[in-house]
Structures are given as C-alpha cells and as structure tokens.
Amino acid sequence: MVPLDSVDLAAIWLTLKLATLTTVLLLLIGTPIGWWLARTRSKWKGPIGAVVALPLVLPPSVLGFYLLVAMGPNGFIGQLTQSLGLGTLPFTFAGLVVASVFYSLPFVVQPLQNAFEAIGERPLEVAATLRASPADTFFTVVLPLAKPGFVTAAILGFAHTVGEFGVVLMIGGNIPEQTRVVSVQIYDHVEAMEYAQAHWLAGGMLAFSFVVLLVLYTSRLKQGWRG
Fold first, then answer.
1. Beta carbons within 8 Å of 149's beta carbon, 6+ residues apart
2. What is the pTM of this model?
3. Per-residue pLDDT at 224
C-alpha cells in the first residue's frame, strides 16, 4: 500500500483549484454565448458555433500548440499581456486557466444552449406581457428553467478540466506546485516506472469519472420521470 506523497497531493490540489476556477469562468463566459446561439438567427450562428465546438474534434496537441503560439511573446495574446505588464502566460497557472477555458468551452456552452432552446418561446412571451424587462425575464424565468442545463454544464466543465493532459502539458509544462496537474503527475510516475503511485492517482481519476457519469445519468433519468 503506497500512500500519496506531498508531490501527489500538490498535484491534486492544483488540479482541483484549476478545475474550480475554470468552471466558474466557463459559466460566466458560456452563458451569454449559449444564450446568443440559442436565440439568434444571425448568419454568424453557424461559424461561431463551429468555432466554439472546435475543441471537440481538434487534437489537444494542435489546440495547445496554437494557444502556445498565441500566448507567447510574439503572439497577439502574449503582446497584450506584456503591454499590460503581466508578462507571458505559458508555463504559469494563469496560462493553464486560459488554455482550460478554451479547451473545455464546448462542454459548457452546448448544454447551456440546449437548455435555453428547450425553454421555448411561451415563457418569454408570458413574461413580456407582464412587462418584465429582458434582464428580469432572463434572471427570473430563463435561469430557473435552465437550471438542469447549468448543473450539467458545470459538472462536464469541471470533469473535463480535471482530465486534461495534452493541452496543459503544452501550455504549463511540468512545474511542481505551479503547473503539474494530476494527469501529468500520472505520466511522470509511469515514465519513472512507479506503477504503484500511478495506480493510486489513476484509480482516483477512474472513480471520479464514474461518479460524474453516474450523477449525470441519474439526474437525466429523474428529469425524464418528472416529464
């Protein structure tokens, strides 16, 4: 029986911190995007929806490479952060957060978009007849009705961020207590042939993934019964 050492615990803490912060940012960013995609009839809906969904089909190494270029000293994001006195983002925790937001964006936007589309027009029309403002309608009608979508989006965004490997390795490297997350720590253990330690972390990831899927499927079944 091999207990987790301080390096493993630091990787777990950093992963949870990254996933939590990324999920909060994704909900803040993804809500207006999902609402716009659900409501708009603009010709830009297709292209923007495709851009949002790109991480679903792009290899993580490809996305990580272009993010690394964009956030580097000669990239447009890197030049912006340097002009603001923030330096460059690669190989920092902030860089991991930015990369994770891009990588997990569709896992939050798509459930929100589906939830908004499922509401339909009737509740919005009723709110309009009661002279509710668009903001009042959104916060008092749309958000409560879309609550299951927000729960799904939050769970998927968090879980997907926890399971990242390629993108975080490209952007963050492997710096202990700064950018080394659980997936990278497992890779390090396997590379060093420390299979017992790798089993502990990998088993934890497996259990976590199972619980996430169990919660999602259980909640969907309950929603189906209520319907």
1. 111, 112, 114, 115, 116, 118
2. 0.87
3. 55
**SS3 assignment, position 3:** coil
Answer whether 157's CB lies under 8 Å from 108's CB.
yes
pLDDT in tens, 3-62: 677 888 888 899 999 999 999 999 999 999 999 999 988 899 999 999 999 999 988 889
Take residue 72 and report the two structure tokens written for it: 């580097």
Question: Which tokens in the block code for residue 165?
Answer: 């490997």
DSSP classification of residue 2: -
C-alpha–C-alpha distance, residues 13 and 219, integer Å? 27
Kindly indicate the confidence band of residue 107, based on its pLDDT and cuts at 50, 70 and 90: very high
Whole-number Å distance between alpha carbons of 172 and 99:
9
191-213: b or e for each residue (b if 16 or more CB lie within 10 Å)? eeeeeebbebbbeebeeeeeebe
Q: Are 109 and 52 in contact (CB under 8 A)?
A: yes
As to burial, measured by CB atoms within 10 angstroms (0-12 exposed, 13-18 middle, 19+ buried), residue 59 is: exposed
User: How many CA atoms within 13 Å lie on the side-chain side of 14?
Assistant: 26
For range 104-109, the mean pLDDT: 95
